[in-house]
Design brief:
Blueprint (H helix, E strand, L loop, with lengths): L1 H16 L11 H7 L1 H7 L6 H14 L8 H14 L10 E8 L4 E8 L1 H8 L5 E10 L3 E5 L5 E5 L8 E10 L4 E7 H11 L8 H4 L1 H13 L7 H8 L22 E2 L7
Antiparallel strand pairs: 1-2, 1-8, 3-6, 4-5, 6-7
Helix pairs in contact: 1-2, 3-4, 6-9
Length: 269
């Protein structure tokens, strides 16, 4: 009920500016999101229509019912973040995710925006200096070797069958001017990184449903630290795994919440 009431309050502010919008006291969440479409439209890039984005928002709530327990502003802000980056949240495309978190300091559930592996790839290719960006999984039966230093090299020949368990994950980039770089992490290092930096690792999270994609995204973020990326792309990547409670024409400028913990299924607090 709190979710509906707060969304209704937000929608009422829009109604004052647009007399053509009609609201009812018990309007469903889905309809309230549609009422908020004028604000969403202002933030959308040309590649997404308001109608398609609204459908994605409704799909996110449908696929992840616990998003209804999130504070409305954090939910809408996460949607705005996805819109401005041109990424589709909570769809099979794996571009972005909306994740419910419990903010123990505020004692409420908030929505975190996460960039998916495919979304990260999409963002990087918007940088015209990048010719290639990719990540690969190395399994225990693959042939794999790498060497750092002035004569660095990376060699990976996947096994044709029975590749075994995950052993390493690596990411590489190549620039149009011939420059390149790569980063390699073993499975243990990736898990340690996830546990340290992702509160969602042990609960509801893409780490549980799509470990390989999240592992590849992690290594891509690391290798991009050595790539000459535009400031705009660096700022976009910085919006990954953030929780925000304001809406702005540039969501990247909004500071992220700092006090949150993972929200788990069955948590009724």
């Amino acid at each position: 009920m709190e979710f509906k009431q707060q969304l209704a309050s937000k929608a009422e502010n829009i109604q004052k500016k647009d007399k053509g919008i009609k609201l009812t006291a018990n309007m469903p969440i889905e309809d309230m999101i549609k009422v908020l479409e004028p604000e969403i439209k202002k933030a959308l890039p040309q590649v997404l229509t308001p109608e398609r984005f609204t459908r994605m928002a409704l799909t996110a709530v449908s696929n992840t019912p616990n998003l209804q327990k999130c504070t409305p502003m954090s939910f809408i802000a996460a949607l705005m973040n996805a819109a401005q980056l041109g990424l589709e949240p909570n769809t099979p495309l794996g571009q972005a995710y909306l994740i419910p978190y419990k903010n123990k300091k505020k004692n409420c559930i908030e929505c975190q925006f996460q960039i998916g592996y495919k979304g990260m790839i999409d963002l990087v290719y918007r940088n015209e200096n990048v010719q290639t960006i990719q990540a690969q999984i190395v399994y225990e039966n693959d042939e794999f070797e790498y060497e750092l230093g002035l004569n660095s090299k990376l060699r990976h020949i996947p096994a044709l069958s029975d590749r075994g368990e995950i052993k390493f994950v690596y990411a590489l980039f190549k620039l149009k001017n011939g420059g390149y770089g790569f980063e390699v992490m073993n499975k243990e290092a990736i898990i340690a990184h996830a546990k340290r930096y992702s509160p969602a690792f042990d609960g509801y999270s893409p780490w549980k449903t799509d470990f390989e994609a999240m592992a590849m995204k992690t290594v891509i973020k690391k290798v991009l630290k050595f790539a000459p990326l535009k400031a705009e792309l660096q700022r976009a990547i910085a919006s990954d795994e953030t929780i925000k409670n304001q809406i702005a024409m540039d969501m990247i400028e909004i500071n992220s919440e700092e006090y949150y913990d993972n929200y788990e299924e069955g948590d009724n607090e």
